[in-house]
Write a structure and sequence with these properties.
By secondary structure, the chain is α+β, with helices and mostly antiparallel strands. The chain is built from three helices and 13 strands. 27% of the residues lie in helices and 36% in strands. The strands form three sheets. A six-stranded antiparallel β-sheet has the order 6-5-4-2-1-13. A four-stranded antiparallel β-sheet has the order 9-10-11-12. Strands 3-7-8 form a three-stranded antiparallel β-sheet, with no helix packed on it. Strand 1 and strand 2 form a beta hairpin.
């Protein structure tokens, strides 16, 4: 009786999980666009991040500024690494459609899949460890034209004394790549595989 109940419970759980996964996947594929981005400085420091937005509401060029509810971005995360690929820090400047970074400057051309214009992503609450990547266009846009540097992009953080220190500079642009929709499907297949494996474990006669 217990064995039969266990099989039934697993079957229901598997079916439910699969149904939810299909619903979520279908919605994501239909309305969401997700991208990764990266940047590398001249001395080996690097940046990796990701962002996503709803394609049903976003225009061809997405622009976000400041700390407030975003117009189009749903999420934006960024991580900073030293030349040995050790993590320096990670932040999520945009969470659930709301920016928590006062200096945020983000512009993305969805047709060309390129970052353009002022760029400033990270965290700066004037605390030790705060780190951000920006460019001269962002400095000018934010009214800090006196801080424009010889190289276009700058990776900066605050030391223990809360003073700004430049970690790296480069004319390298921020590169963007779209996250394949197939990666979501792979996750769905993993759910299916788990369900089949559980059924086989509790019912050796079960076959696909």
């Amino acid at each position: 009786m217990t064995h039969s109940f266990t099989k039934t419970a697993i079957s229901i759980a598997t079916t439910t999980a699969l149904g939810l996964a299909i619903a979520i996947t279908t919605n994501n594929l239909a309305h969401a666009a997700e991208f990764n981005f990266n940047w590398k400085g001249d001395t080996g420091y690097s940046v990796k991040g990701s962002f996503n937005y709803d394609t049903t509401t976003a225009p061809s060029v997405i622009s976000e500024t400041g700390s407030k509810p975003t117009k189009y971005l749903q999420s934006l995360s960024i991580s900073f690494f030293d030349p040995l690929s050790n993590l320096i820090n990670s932040f999520t400047p945009v969470v659930s459609g709301s920016s928590n970074y006062s200096y945020l400057r983000f512009n993305f051309d969805s047709a060309k899949e390129k970052i353009l214009g002022p760029f400033d992503v990270g965290k700066d609450d004037m605390l030790p460890g705060d780190t951000w990547l920006n460019n001269n266009l962002a400095l000018i846009d934010e009214g800090f034209s006196n801080q424009v540097l010889p190289k276009e992009f700058h990776l900066i953080n605050r030391n223990a004394a809360r003073a700004e220190q430049i970690l790296d500079l480069s004319n390298n642009s921020v590169q963007v790549s779209k996250v394949p929709e197939g990666s979501i499907i792979i996750g769905l297949l993993a759910v299916c595989s788990l369900g089949f494996n559980l059924k086989q474990k509790f019912n050796p006669k079960f076959k696909i």
